[in-house]
Amino acid sequence: MDTPILEVKNLRKEFGGLVAVNDVSFQVQEGQIRAIIGPNGAGKTTIFNLISKFYAPTAGEILYKQERIDGLAAHKMAELGIARTFQNLQIMGNMTVLENVMVGHHCRTRHGILSSAFRLPLFRREEKESLDRCMERLEFVGLESKASRAASGLSFGEQRMVEFARALACEPRLLMLDEPASGLSISEMEKMAELIYRIRDQGITVMLIEHDMGLVMNISDMVTVLNYGQKIAEGAPREVQDNEEVISAYLGEELDSDNA
Fold first, then answer.
1. Helix crossing, 97-105 with 156-169: angle to 10°?
2. Residue at which a domain ends, from 171, 192, 210
3. Quick check: is 244 in a domain?
4. What's the N-to-C CA distance of the chain in angstroms?
5. 230 plus 181 within the same structural domain
6. Total number of domains in the chain
7. DSSP letters of the chain?
8. Digitized pLDDT (tens) for each residue of the chain, 260 residues in all
């Protein structure tokens, strides 16, 4: 855990006259579970969008494995090994669960249009490998028995697991989770926390945005705290939880109740 897999240096994002991210810097060490927390409008998702290339930064640098990526196209992120989920479900309900997951593995295939159209040996071999790989991912999240079902027929929590499986099918080294516990029941949240541990144990670094402070404090190795687009604190969960600036800024009662 001594090597930074991701470095954000003096990152800034402006939308017209609004500064959404203001000179934010941090490192994510390989093998960490790193949480980014803050109130609505703090800039958390904007930072995720900058890293995953939905937005271009106004200023600053983003490095992945010591190489700058802030100038690359969005589709290159998955190829490099960066995958993410979104706060709002991005499930294709008219496709099966397995087909949804196979979309995530497409970036790891090499066959082209002609190979697909004529079902050449490379296409057939990669199609078999992709099916096997994606079934492994569904087994990992506990949905292998529902592979052939329409994704729209699954519960909300199961659809969230499909998103996890699809992101994992990209074979990432860095997985970014935007509010993974949103909309989940307590039991589903417990399963999701266990799954994040298992993902980390597979050698995948995890970044997450999350409002549930109990979850953040229980599973994170490090926490970065944002407010009004600026980093106001960073450290181990207990250090952040006891930070007076953090408490007075916006977490107060929630953190106090956790400490009680």
1. 30
2. 171
3. no
4. 32
5. yes
6. 2
7. --SEEEEEEEEEEEETTEEEEEEEEEEEETT-EEEEE-STTSSHHHHHHHHTTSS--SEEEEEETTEE-TTS-TTHHHHHTEEE--SS----TTSBHHHHHHHHHGGG----HHHHHTT-HHHHHHHHHHHHHHHHHHHHHT-GGGTTSBGGGS-HHHHHHHHHHHHHHT--SEEEEESTTTT--HHHHHHHHHHHHHHHHTT-EEEEE-S-HHHHHHH-SEEEEEETTEEEEEESHHHHHT-HHHIIIIIHHHHHHHH-
8. 567 999 999 999 999 989 999 999 999 999 999 999 988 889 999 999 999 999 999 999 999 999 999 988 888 888 899 999 988 888 888 899 999 998 888 765 565 555 555 455 666 677 778 888 899 999 999 999 999 999 999 999 999 999 999 999 999 999 999 999 988 999 999 999 999 999 999 999 999 999 888 899 999 999 999 999 999 999 999 999 888 888 876 554 444 444 43
Domain carrying residue 196: 1-81+174-236
The residue behind tokens 């994040």 is 196
Dihedral angle of Cα 100, 92, 193, 69, to the nearest 10 degrees: 80
Q: Which residue has the tokens 């479900």?
A: 89
Closest CA to 183 of 154, 160, 150, 206: 160
The pTM for the full model equals 0.87
Tokens encoding 88: 């709002």
